[in-house]
Write a structure and sequence with these properties.
Blueprint: H1 2-7, E1 10-12, E2 15-17, E3 21-24, H2 31-41, E4 45-49, E5 74-78, H3 85-98, E6 104-107, H4 120-132, E7 136-141, H5 145-154, E8 158-161, H6 175-183, E9 190-192, H7 198-206, E10 211-214, H8 216-219, H9 224-244
Parallel strand pairs: 3-4, 3-10, 4-5, 6-7, 7-8, 9-10
Antiparallel strand pairs: 1-2
Helix pairs in contact: 2-9, 3-4, 4-5, 5-6, 7-9
């Protein structure tokens, strides 16, 4: 699988990654569990909620970068907890300052505290500002194919439609919308939110998604480190199955051993 992954990288903003599983860093018991789960997942890109996680802005407090150093992991600052375009833009600029000019960010602008669905109007506004400001924007959005294309046209380097509400664990709820988004995209499509277990991640990859981002499905599991390992295998298997090409579905049986031409 290592050789296959190396020959089939996920490319984001010109940078290749062998892992197609992106993981979050919230909700774990402590920083040590965060480290162990991230390593078990084989993740190379890890998201960090700038408004909730210390990456140096609070001297004297435990620093996430001590266990997930930027020389080993690509830190993906995200705007979790932002409800306006202005707050999201401000948060990304803070992240760029804290991370010495880091340009890659995950944009999410929420519209509702109960469902955590994205506010697509504010998301579009923030994306336009951030792209103009020189950021490489990976954007969380609804599974609307028209909106996904619009965000790509703005200049986002990856579009990240939800599979189901954040933290719900409901899995892929509208695979047909995802397929429509994937088939019309020229940038990576990464499922973000809603994955509950390994089969959900595998289905996303079998549909043709370029990657999966998850946090709660791992951190909320009874054994987060073991679940992280399971998710790693699921993403790899789903990608391999997509590349291999599944057989067509048929209503009737098709014998594994043909009967035509049998002797006697």
């Amino acid at each position: 699988m290592t050789d296959f992954a190396s020959s089939d990288p996920l490319v984001i903003a010109g940078t290749p990654f062998t892992s197609r599983l992106l993981t979050g860093t919230g909700k774990f018991a402590d920083l040590e569990q965060t480290r162990l789960a991230t390593e078990a997942a084989g993740a190379q890109i890890v998201t960090v909620a700038i408004r909730r996680t210390n990456i140096g802005q609070n001297p004297g407090e435990p620093n996430l970068l001590d266990v997930l150093p930027p020389d080993r992991f690509t830190i993906l600052p995200n705007t979790a907890g932002c409800y306006t375009a202005d707050d999201a833009v401000r948060t990304c600029r803070l992240a760029r300052e804290l991370l010495d000019g880091h340009k890659l960010v995950k944009l999410e602008v929420l519209g509702d505290q109960r469902t955590l669905y994205p506010d697509v109007v504010q998301t579009l506004a923030a994306a336009e500002t951030l792209v103009r400001d020189g950021f490489d924007v990976m954007v969380y959005t609804s599974d609307d194919p028209i909106l996904a294309k619009r965000l790509e046209d703005i200049g986002c380097v990856a579009v990240m439609p939800l599979a189901a509400p954040i933290g719900s664990g409901l899995g892929i709820q509208n695979r047909y919308n995802l397929i429509e988004i994937i088939e019309n995209a020229k940038v990576p499509i990464i499922v973000d939110a809603g994955v509950g277990t390994a089969s959900d991640a595998s289905i996303a990859m079998e549909l043709g998604c370029d990657g999966v981002l998850m946090n709660t499905a791992i951190a909320g599991a009874r054994d987060p480190v073991l679940m992280a390992h399971a998710m790693k295998l699921a993403v790899e298997a789903g990608r391999a199955a997509f590349k291999a090409g599944r057989i067509p579905r048929k209503r009737f049986a098709s014998a594994s051993s043909p009967v035509d031409g049998l002797i006697g």
